[in-house]
Amino acid sequence: MRVLIVGGTGVIGSCLQKTLAKNGHEVVITSRKSSTSNDSTLLVNLENISDSVQTIRNAGNFDAVVLSAGVSSIRACQVNPQATSLVNVDAQVEIANDLLSINPLKIVLISSNRVFDGSAELIKSKSTYSPTTEYGRQKSQAETELLSLGSSVKIVRFSKVISEHTALIVDWFSKLSNNEKISAFVDMAISPITVDTAVNVIENVLVAECGPVVQFSAADEISFFDLASVVANYAKSPLSNVIRQLAQDAGDNAVLHSSLESSVFLPIKPMPSLQSVHKIMEKLIRS
User: Fold this and answer.
1) Nearest-angstrom CA–CA distance, 23 and 41
2) Could you give phi then psi for residue 197, rounded to 5 degrees?
3) Concatenated DSSP letters for 218-249?
């Protein structure tokens, strides 16, 4: 299978590229920066939609496209909704629409649990959109417009995807290792999965039959404070260095729930949140 990963240098995209290539697929990626180490990289800036569409069209036919690029910062989307919507909605839809006009292929959009308001746990895939952030609104719009293009479009919603390179975890580990204090929300729920798990889900969606929307999260939920406590343990730092904080004190809104009802067709079972965190911390320690 010939697969295009739009956003192939991001955390999910780069890991997906390696996995698909290892499993015998031909993989082409896009990046905003030119690469001398990978000659199958297309230079694409989604802020320029027409050029992006043409560059991808010139790369030939694909069997599947994974749309994993975009602006994921909730704050950036809130501050500049017009520019971020151009990337997170318009560019995704235009690329998919153009490719589908050339030949039939599978389109996979990587989306987020932020399309929901976090008022319930293990939320079902067919639940009504209820975003509370601009980022969530943009993801909801992108999902809606892409699904209208036909049954070849698949949406993959994840909860928090973490890796040993996740900036927050790396920063916390560094500070705690130096006996510095950090603050972590006690009223912000996350349901983290490892990037390896996320990639396995995407690969299954690419090669198997599935419904229009696939969801995956951990089997349960923890708070950011719980996450920070595990990081402190690996950093050999006293738990007193982790300061409890309310989201509103940092100008954010509390999110009571984060988990999704995971799709059952996949040969992958959701693991507990803390198990995901331990796997990532073990990788971080070894790196």
Assistant:
1) 19
2) -65, -45
3) -SS-EEHHHHHHHHHHHTT--GGGEEEE-GGG
SS3 state at 109: strand
Instruction: Give, in order, the Cα–Cα distances in Å from 195 to each of 11, 12, 13, 19, 37.
Output: 7, 6, 10, 11, 23
**CA dist., res. 213 & res. 147, Å (int):** 9
Identify which of 75, 70, 84, 79 has the alpha carbon closest to the alpha carbon of residue 10: 70
* Domains, the chain, with CATH or none: 2-161+192-216 (3.40.50.720), 163-190+220-259+267-286 (3.90.25)
Per-residue pLDDT of the chain (287 residues; tens, 9 = 90+): 999 999 999 999 999 999 999 999 999 999 987 654 556 799 999 999 999 999 999 999 999 999 999 999 999 999 999 999 999 999 999 999 999 999 899 999 999 999 999 999 999 999 999 999 999 999 999 999 999 999 999 999 999 999 999 999 999 999 999 999 999 999 999 999 999 999 999 999 999 989 999 999 999 999 999 999 999 999 999 999 999 999 988 888 889 999 999 998 778 999 999 999 999 999 999 98
